[in-house]
Prior knowledge:
The chain is α+β, with helices and mostly antiparallel strands. The chain has helices at about 30-45, 50-70, 80-85, 100-115, 120-130, 135-145, 150, 155-170, 275-280, 285-295, and strands at about 5, 25, 175-180, 195-200, 210-215, 220, 235-240, 250-255, 260-270, 295-300.
Amino acid sequence: MSIRIVPLDEAGRLQTAAGEIPPLLLPQPAERYLARSRRLTALADGHPMAAYLAFAARIAAAQHRLVREQPVTLPPRGDYFHHCAEHGLPPLGAAAWPRDPVWRDLLRALCAELAALPGPAGQMARELEQTDDAALESAARALLDGDFTAVGSARAPLLWAALSVYFSQLAAQLQVTAVAEPDDARHLCPVCAMPPVASVVRLGNESGLRYLHCSLCESEWHLVRAKCSNCEATRDIGYWSLEQGDSQQAAVRGESCGDCGSYLKILALDKGLDAEPAADDLATLALDQQLEQRGFARSGVNPLLFPG
Length: 308
């Protein structure tokens, strides 16, 4: 990977320049899920997808409570993280990381909170709450391997929500630093190797810098602007929005690549201070439809809406 993650006890041997762009921003799960819930609730007001956005807000609110009430501890792994650093591997590679059964406890607690919802959402929560461990592990493996159709669009958001609470808390506890390396493989999260949901042009200490936001562990990693987040090409990058006129003024735009035919949303916090990657991506599905009609394929994953 082009962003190598190194344990802090090895960081003293690394040379970094003053003012260097931070390659990696580890997550703050409690703040993230609360902000997502609030943003989804605000976006639902008067939206054509109001019911689904409100349901997604309930998932994010449940995730926030799980982080506060059922914290997960990063286990000691001996030399494992040093081995990952040596070989350029993601320290929490989601498909290979030996998941603690606690993630299933998180799932069942989340489902218990959502079980009272009316209609199919509540029914699915009740079914998942009663699903046996082996079936849950099988579904988790399929989901993290990208086999969304094997899991189904009804089950996937709840399973992913619990896995996200699990992995984001692990990521937040990593005692690491990150080193930007010269190759161009930044299309997956350097922490857990999952795809981004969107990219964000930030404010504050990272003002004007673009970071990809992980769909699973909620980490963010730097990628220069006007560059395809999927294939790293710069030749044929296009920008699209739902707003009339100058798309540069839109808080949410689609960034397309003519070389690989993919697209991903890009959020500008200076145009929309409350914009949140998963929430605003979900609320702009009309933009996805326009881009797909033009022949582009989505390169990211929204943790609240899956195909299949």
